[in-house]
Write a structure and sequence with these properties.
With 168 residues, this protein is of the alpha+beta class. The chain contains six helices and seven strands. Helix 2 (26-43) runs antiparallel to helix 3 and helix 4 (98-107) packs across helix 5.
């Protein structure tokens, strides 16, 4: 077996603009993984597998160097409507506006939301501000009959669930 065929056997391939195949680089592999995980979330009947959600969030947010606040919009049967990154911040914080979260939920006709943000520091523990924001959003969304099912913090490969911690 030649060196070229051996390297091709162990690599993922992509087609370039000329139609030739070449080994994919790390960014292309991660991009493909994000698409696969997003399709798995979108195609599932309902969010019956927390593991699919966690895997998706690890790939989507786990390696970011800045904070992102996102919402996973769900219908009345907890089927995924859409994942939306709503706010982008700095290395240690992001500003979240409850009015915009409510507007976005209404625009997508969401029955429920999973709130999500990342901690680039690698520490998944919620801050007091995270806890207060969760309660504020939960109250604001309740006024328009949108349930908050969970708030997840992604810190690298670790994910903390407010619902599992009894913080919701």
């Amino acid at each position: 077996m030649s060196q070229l065929s051996h390297s091709l056997d162990s690599s993922l391939l992509v087609r370039d603009v000329t139609g030739d195949y070449r080994p994919a680089n790390a960014d292309e592999v991660l991009q493909a993984a994000r698409r696969v995980l997003a399709a798995q979330m979108r195609d599932c009947d309902a969010l019956t597998s927390p593991q699919v959600v966690r895997d998706f969030l690890r790939v989507k947010l786990g390696a970011l160097e800045h904070e992102v606040f996102a919402a996973i919009h769900l219908d009345a049967q907890n089927r995924v409507i859409e994942y939306v990154e709503m706010f982008r911040g700095t290395v240690s914080q992001t500003s979240v506006y409850p009015r915009e979260v409510v507007k976005d939920a209404l625009a997508r006709n969401s029955a429920a939301l999973l709130l999500v943000h990342n901690h680039p520091s690698g520490a998944a523990e919620p801050s007091r501000a995270d806890e207060m924001l969760t309660q504020t959003l939960k109250s604001a969304l309740a006024l328009v009959d949108v349930r908050v099912l969970d708030h997840l913090i992604v810190a690298g490969s670790a994910i903390l669930s407010f619902a599992e911690r009894g913080l919701l």
